[in-house]
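Purpose: get a first structural picture of the assembly so the mutagenesis plan has something to point at.
Setup: two entries, given in the order below. No constraints added.
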Amino acid sequence: MKDLEQALIKDLRSEDYRYAYDEQFANAKAATQIKVLRESHDPPLTQAQLAQMAGMKQSRISELEDVDYSAWTISTLRRLARALGVRIAFQFESWSDLLAEVESLSETSLRRPPFHLDPVFQVTEEEASGTLPSDRASLMGALEQGQERTAVAQFVGFSRLSEVGTLSAVPREEEQKASWR
Amino acid sequence: MIQFPRKWLLYDFTDSRGQSIVSRWAEEKRIDDDMRAKVDVKLDLLAKLGPDLPPGLLAGTSFRNVDKLRIFGKRVTWRFMICRGPINPAVEFTIIYIAQERNRKLVPKNADELADNNRKIIIDNVERRRKHERLGAGTN
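Result (structure tokens, whole complex):
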């Protein structure tokens, strides 16, 4: 078990500690992900360009891209998601999920393909002609059966499902880049 | 190939008795679990992602070699003064001073200068720092 994970298992037993840790971590992660998605956009976006696409001022994007920003609203996040071509998800999580989230956090783990580069939604000649390539067919099948972890494992290229701790597991960077382009 | 994030090493400046300034600060100011968590998250992020990825994690000061990390408490805002290195700037950060901020001004006023002095003390004597230990949840 990693040192940080071990320390957090002990520290998160304090209620005040765990809620403060989670809140600060979530704020920092959201701010960092906006920056990562903006900069990994093809072509990379300036804050001013993202602001224009989201119908905001550049100063607002600058405010949001700050690890200490805490006044998030769902409507602001939805506008940003739409401008970046991704979706925003809201869900309650268990505390053990936080451990994996902290452990796997990296620039790569924060990247998400915009809809038009998402491999699942790429229309190919085979699809147009009614035949799916086998790897895509199995990916679609896993998604249809609600096996998100299996689908993610196939998408990011892990050979064993046990290697996928969470949906934000670190993928193979080069393969991921290649699959988006 | 899976890319593992690069890890940064964190150190604390120590007082003349060898105690970390971070643990002394937590003891003397009776820092509660809410604040301990806020400090730990920021320093975990710095150790895990370095200074450039999380936006606004570190802010500059009037001293080129000294940055500050902001910790917002319920009543008090703390500024952890941090330098890269100073022994191996490629992989290390050292917490060299802890100041308060009141009305957007550092207390003490010359906190960044005091921080830079501590940085120079470490360069002269590497024994004046020790590996940073996460504050963790306290016993208060």
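The first helix of chain B runs from residue 21 to 28.
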